[in-house]
Amino acid sequence: MATIYDVAELARVSPATVSRVFNGTNVSPEKLAAVRAAAEKLDFTPNRAARTLRRQSSEVIALVIPDIENPYFTEMARGVEDVASEAGYSVVLCNSDAQVDKESTYLRIAIAENMSGVIIATASETSDLDPILATGRPVVAVDRGTAYDVDGVVMSNRAAGAAAAQELIRAGYRRIAYIGGPSHIDTAAERAAGWQDALTAAGRAIDPELQRFSTFGVEGGREVMAELLALPEPPDAVVAGNNLIGVGAIQVLTEHGLTPPAVGVAVIGSLPFTTLSPNAVTVVRLPARHMGVTAARMLLERIRGDDQPARMVVLRGELRSASIPR
Length: 326
Prior knowledge:
Blueprint lengths: L3 H8 L3 H8 L6 H14 L3 H11 L3 E6 L5 H16 L3 E6 L4 H13 L4 E4 L9 H5 L4 E4 L8 E5 L1 H14 L5 E5 L5 H16 L9 E3 L4 H12 L7 E4 L2 H13 L8 E5 L13 E4 L2 H16 L8 E4 L2 E3 L6
Parallel strand pairs: 1-2, 1-3, 3-4, 4-5, 5-11, 6-7, 6-8, 8-9, 9-10
Antiparallel strand pairs: 10-12
């Protein structure tokens, strides 16, 4: 039986282009015609190929995430595992450390081990999903958007950034900073855009000094918070772009005798119970477990043969205001 690679070779296109043609994604008319002609000549039937793949695949799915030590991704993984286990599937957890090369290695392993599908929070906008998609295996993107035409589950990040900043504005803070993860990752950029939206709507000027990007880890939060406090006019409040950034920022504030609410803090993501003064911090809680549950259900539907167009599910955060007033 002809494979997607045979069609790609005859049509002189990449296997990913063949996959996009049969998934209904827009491609150029020339490539569309070439792929269809090659498929007809080789008697290639995508549905038949998918059924063969499903018979050959193991009842294992891969979950590729950037940082297993981040409680947000741990909670997401639990949601994936709960759904997969109930359906008779095992989950292999792959920690990419936000490194594209490491991520690509895990995707190659997923192919080599005949895993049934992949759920992935991509390491970068340059992440290469072509090899896994070319095999016909389903992929669901989580947390971050992707240029690929695959199912996805993301957060309403811009709304979360706006809600966090709006709450600090309502509390009376005037000079509100934003600390985000790497600016090339859409979650960080979108949350920063929400912060800007809230300040603009309140008639506040956007001070470039107060918008900072670092890593999504505790050390990133510590480093940038220290830089902000060293400014001639430091901020009186800060929006932390994720939970670990928030932990780092609060640590530095506490070391300087500025425990919230002395300096306002709003965190996008749940704070660990061990964080100092958690009740003095505004939190936009992100439903990470629900994201994992939703992604796993979507992936299982694809594994079972669902061939509807790619879907995108957007989840909203839940605001929990600080219970200790300024």
